[in-house]
Structures are given as C-alpha cells and as structure tokens.
Amino acid sequence: MPKSSFTVAALSLIVGAAGGVAGAYGYLHQQAPELAGGGGGPAVEPVVAPAKVEVLAPTRPDGVVQLVRNVRGAVVNIDVESARVMAPDTMDFFDEGNTRSRRQVVRGVGSGFVMEHDGLIATNNHVVEGAKVLNVTFYDGKKYPAVVVGTDPSTDLAVVRIRAPRQAGLKLATPESLQVGEYVVAMGSPLGLQQTVTMGVLSALDRDIGMDTRVGFLQTDAPINPGNSGGPLMNLNGEVLGINSAVAQSAQGIGFAIPVGTLRSVLPQLAAGVRADKAWFGARTSNVPGDPARMTYPRRTGVLVTGLEQGSPASQGGLQAGDVLVQVNGRPIEDSGTLMQVLAPLGAGSQVTLVVARLGAARTLAVTLGTPPRG
Known about the structure:
mainly beta, 6-stranded antiparallel beta barrel, 2 domains, globular, Pdz3 Domain, Thrombin, subunit H
C-alpha cells in the first residue's frame, strides 16, 4: 500500500481562556492527480453499464432515526481543562519587569462513547492529554467528573471513568464485517454542538495517513469536524466501526477513524489500567525492490525479511532473513505498511499463519506473537 504524504493533527476543539476558538483539525495535504483529456490526448472510451444492474434501495430514513434513539444515551461530550505554560515573551508587554512564565487555562471539547462490557468511556488520547479537569455530559444533560484510566499515544486511544450508575454501552463491530460502501453514522460534539449526527458511507479501509503506520485508518465521507474526536463511527446496526480522529483540511468529505480492530486490541488493556503493549513479531523488513530483476526469485509484492531480532517470535517460528512474506492469516501483504496494519490489532499470544516465498518456493509457518522485551 503506497504511503500518502499526509500531515495530520487532531480533531478536538480547543477554546482559550480568552474565549477564542482554534480548531485543531486533522490536516491532510495531498495533491490529486490531474485528469487526462483534451489537448489532443488519447480518446477516452465511454463507460458502458452492464445490461442489468441490481440497485439496492438506501436504508429507510426512519431506520436511522431509530438508530440514533437507541445509541444517543451512550454518546458523550467531554469537556477538558488543561494548563498551558506561557513564555515571558508572550505575556502582556506592559509587564516588562516580570520574566517568569505563567500558566493559562485552556479548555477543549471532544467526544466519546460508553463501552459495552465495563461501562467505561472510550475516546482519543489527544482529547484528554494533559487534562487537569475532565467532565462528561450525557444526552440527558447529566454531567459527571471523570478520571483517565489509561492512554496510548501511539494509537491515539484513551479510556476514562466516571462515578455514576452504570450506563448502557455500544457494541464493537467485528473487523471482518466492515464493507466499503456501507452506510455509516457519526455522532459527537463538533464545535461543541453536542449530540450532532451525520451520515455517509465507509469510503475505504487501511488508509496510511502518516500518524501511525500500525493503524490502517478507515476513511469516510460522513462530515466530522473539530470536537468530533473520540466519537463513534457506527454501522446501521449501531455497532462501532471506529473512533473519529482526523479530517482533510483542503478537501470535503474525507475523514478518518481508528478502526475497530485496533479498538478491540488496545481498549481492553487501557480499561484494565495496564500499558497497551504491542505484540512483538521481531522481524526487520523492507518492501521488495521496485525492479524485480534485482531479485534472484523476482516478486512484485510482499515484504523482504532483512533481519531477525534474537529470540524473537518470528525467529522461533522459522522465519529467515531473505524470505519474502506474502500472506498473514490469509491476507495478501503488499508492503511493510500492510504488514504492520495486519499485526497491530493482534495481542501477545496471538498465533498467525504466514506464507513466505523462500528460494522461489512457498512455505507456511506458524508464529505466536510475544511481548516486547523490557529495557
């Protein structure tokens, strides 16, 4: 999967102490390829539709209404207060004699949702990072103070707890159920507007947007804005497909969510208050050369194993330097980014089935992922 040249930031809404608003957008900059045509170029053949096309009617509007009624009690607004240190040169210029730094209270707004099994609240790490005060507000207007249970900056996920009667939570979808083109609903607090509902489709899977190569983000055209961070992206069954995280600045209808496979792997660890350890594979890899002629046994896809960490699961499972990894658990591996995205949702102890090309012949290996060594 080719990597796109994205620049990404968060989607939480930041409000300064003076009341100014600065939306911390997820900014993506990518130049679109120009369309061919005109100027004496080659003729473009018309696209002819098949003689018979089965068209499925979109979901009934009242079905979406009922969906929102069912899930809105589990979608929350998160108000955050944190302290920002002001350098002396940013202070009041009349106060020339005071060179000490000052702290400014910064207020932010994000979203979250109650998880199904434990009643804790899932959100983005960037929503709660550095928070001194957290308050969670539900659909009925009830507000509760919250504390952070666990965070994982690398996947931008966090879990918080409130002291309140247990609330009904949202169910996580299965990663296998995601389908490009299916209808999706996003809920959250864009610009602080609580319980906002938008709708679109799941536009693509496994997008590399430059935040974390281990996370293959979901792409959607459901409108999301600053303040949506941490809110759920759901299918029409009310199951969570992902957590909304970023949007494209110079485009419309391009938003991104952390996929449910990553949620299933990381959130339980954060809910338990333990560090979200990534499963350890222990192989160094690179993309296969662009020129297949440089390889003794040419391949156009897959990743080349360039080395193995001593005692690693990959080494113990029989992987060797020089192997070309072409499949993991039945999924084709196109490049190193794809490999990371396949392995990232898996926890320590998970067994993976590898198909490798070794000296031109296919071999199948079984590897049990481990825990990264300390220190």
